[in-house]
Amino acid sequence: MQKITVLCVGKLKEKFYQEAAAEYAKRLGRHCKLEIIELPESRLPEDPSAAEIQRALAAEAAAIRERLPRGGAVIALCIEGKPCSSVELSRRMQELAVSGKSQLTFLIGGSVGLSEDLKRQADWRLSMSPMTFPHHLARIMLLEQIYRACQIAAGTKYHK
């Protein structure tokens, strides 16, 4: 069974996000071993300088590296990544598993994103859209797409 870790900067505070994440985690339990790891987001002033943002990104990257599962593939969610269809996501997840990378780790940065260094080290940079979304919503969207990818692989009618 494939192991999927979603490593996120920031906690889900709103009840509707928590409920949506719990629902997809429950659904995914039949298809993979899912782990969601939440890391604290660095505090920034209202109008942070570029240096303050870089320090926050570096601190968050260090926390991510400490919790990063060993082995497998790392997928960084970032706007400059390559978008793909749900079918392509399913295919790529299956290809990674067949190639021996049964551990997949998806990285979701906080409100200022992910450090450039982390993105460079990722096996795959994935963009959900050229639009910008709150990182909390991106987590729910990612969980739904992972669930959809599993349903596609299983040949169900969830993906029409």
Strands of the widest sheet, in order across it, are: 2-1-4-3-5
Helicity range of the residues? 40-55%
Share of β-strand residues: 15-25%
Q: Say how many strands there are.
A: 5
What is the general shape?
Answer: globular
Q: Count up the helices.
A: 5
Family: Belongs to the RNA methyltransferase RlmH family.
Function: Specifically methylates the pseudouridine at position 1915 (m3Psi1915) in 23S rRNA.
EC number: 2.1.1.177
Subcellular location: Cytoplasm
Tell me what the structure shows.
The chain has 160 residues and is an alpha/beta fold. Helices cover 44% and strands 23% of the residues. It has helices at residues 15-28, 50-67, 86-98, 116-121, 135-154; strands at 2-9, 32-39, 73-83, 103-108, 124-127. A five-stranded parallel sheet has the order 2-1-4-3-5. Helix 3 crosses helix 5 (135-154). The chain is globular, with a radius of gyration of 15 Å.
Summarize the structure.
The protein is α/β, with parallel strands linked by helices. It has 5 helices and 5 strands.
